[in-house]
Structure formats: structure tokens, C-alpha cells
């Protein structure tokens, strides 16, 4: 049946949903690339909460989604930005998420890496020793859980640091005490405005030099870097300057096909929020790449970029709303509710376009269910046939 979807200016347009999904079977981990999907959390829709309340999580549905990603060979990047870290999920909730997901990963044989930050610090600016201690607390929890650590960018450090030397001191201290190699995460201000000027400078060239100094001083403690600056040229230049053995994990949700495919000088691995909704399709594409077929990989993944750019359009930090919306349409959860009430962060026209683009790609295992749920949402907003 025809759906009538609202456009940006309010006018309705007719759309004919597809009737068959893509055939995307589960499979083993990949040979040529290490690929993580940053996974969202599923809220408990029956919890009596407010946007300021601690997150109420539906643990069964949240862990089931991680098993879905592992079944397709993807690793899970846990308690990251996609999980609404600092946007509805506080440290207490993140700590519980890490414990549960790490245990689930061990049971399922899945790969997992978890975010280490400083979000237990609240209130005004903190002294550097407080920031360092907060990082240490979270690093200890992740290591005790058996997961790999991802050292996330810290709002508290960005507010406290006086220059590059403070970043070098804090990260150097953490890397020296890390039990195993970690992933360093550079999250740009388009994802979190509080991180503007990270690494001690708003000049990205100067910030890159400081970032590389951290890595060069401790290459044995850095498995890789995740770069989320949405600047493909800069990522390519950065990965070519990395010490041998240090990986680049792209976090660029605009240019991931070309960055993962790579060039004659190298390639990026992946740690991407957009691989939450694209998981099975992304996995199939990487398996094609495993055979050496770069063109076939691009043929599968290039058509997904339009959806990714739509989900991550400014304000980019609200991309999580579209990710959870697509999870609901795909049947991975029974409702479109988010921790912190973030389901209200995107407009109906934005969500309608996300549905259309995802449906065209065949991302919904049951297109009819997705259509019915989209129709239900439209009716709640007063859209009638």
C-alpha cells in the first residue's frame, strides 16, 4: 500500500514500500578488516522517568541487539556516543552496560571494546588529578570486565587542560598503566561541541601533532585510533603518519566506503555508529572485500552513504535518534522510546526520509512490519491517507 510521507516543507509525497528484504545471512568475523559497530541502547518504555532521570534500560533487548551484531561477524563498540553516553546514559548506567555486555560477549564469543571516559565528574571545572582519577576508575572497570578499552575524549579534560602538555601528561599516564593496548578516540566537535579544541588547539594541524606525540611515546600501548572528524583527507593523511602496527579505525560516517576500501598506501579499519543500522549489509560488503574485490565492496556500501549522511546531518549529535528509529522499524525493539527522551530530537520529515532511504536499501528484515510501524507513527502525528 502507498505511504504518504511528509517532506521538509510539510507537503506529502507518495512512496511505495518494497516488499522483499535483502538476503543477508549471519557469518564469521572478517579476514581483511577489523570492524566494530557502535551499538545503541534500548530504553525501558514502561519506566516512569523524565529526561533528567537516570537511564532506564531494557537489558534483554539491548543485549539481544548485540548478539545480532556478533552473529554477523561485527565487533561491538560499547558504551560509546551511539549508546547516548553523556546524552541520557550516565556513568552508572554505562558501567552496568559494560559489565553486562562484556559478560555477554564472553558467552557469545563476540569481540567487544568499551568506552573509558570521565563522565562521572559533574558540576564545574575539575583539576587535572581529578580528571585522571576518573579515567583510571573507568579503565579499571573495563579491564576487569575483560573488554578492550577505548580511551574516549573527555569533556572534563577539554574544560580543564591549559594546552597540549596537559593532554600529553594525562594520556601518557593512562597508557603507561593500561594492561593491554587501547584504542584512542578523537571525537570532533560536530559530535560534541564541548570537545572543541581537543588536544590543546582549535587548529587541527596542531592538534594532530599532539595526538601523534601521544601515540609515538607509547606505540606498544595503542592498538589503534578512532577518528571522528568527518574529514576523509585528514584521516588519510593521519593514518599514513601512524607508527607501524597502530591501526586507524575510521569513525567517519560520511566517507567510510572509500576509507575502508583504502588505496595503494593503506586503509582504515572501522568503528562506526552507522554500522548499527547497516550491520548485516556492512558485514556482507566486508566479506566481499575479504576476497580482494574492492569494486564489489564499494558497489554494496556506496549506496548506503545517502542514508548515513541523512542520519548524521547537523546537529550531528542527534544521529542516535535515527539509529534507534531504524532499529524499531527493523524489529530489534518493540517501541520507539529513547533514554533521556531523545526520540523527540528529530522531526517527522527527517524520520520519514530515513525510513524511505533504509527501505530502498532493503535493510528491514520484514518490510511489511516496517511499513506498518511507519504508518502508525504517521498517524500519531496526524498524517492520514
What does this molecule look like?
This protein has 385 residues and is of the alpha/beta class. The protein is 43% helix and 12% strand. The protein contains 14 helices and ten strands. The strands form two sheets. It has an eight-stranded parallel β-barrel with strand order 3-4-5-6-7-8-9-10, surrounded by five helices. Strands 1-2 form a two-stranded antiparallel sheet. Helix 1 packs across helix 2, helix 11 runs antiparallel to helix 13 and helix 13 runs antiparallel to helix 14. The longest helix is centred in the N-terminal third of the chain and has 18 residues, at 91-108. The radius of gyration is 20 Å and the shape is globular. The mean pLDDT is 96.
Largest sheet: 8 strands, parallel, barrel
**Total of DSSP H or I helical runs spanning 4+ residues:** 14
Low-confidence stretches: none
Shape: globular
- How large a portion of the residues is in β-strands, by DSSP E? 5-15%
Which key terms come to mind for this protein?
14 helices; alpha/beta; 10 strands; 12% strand; 385 residues
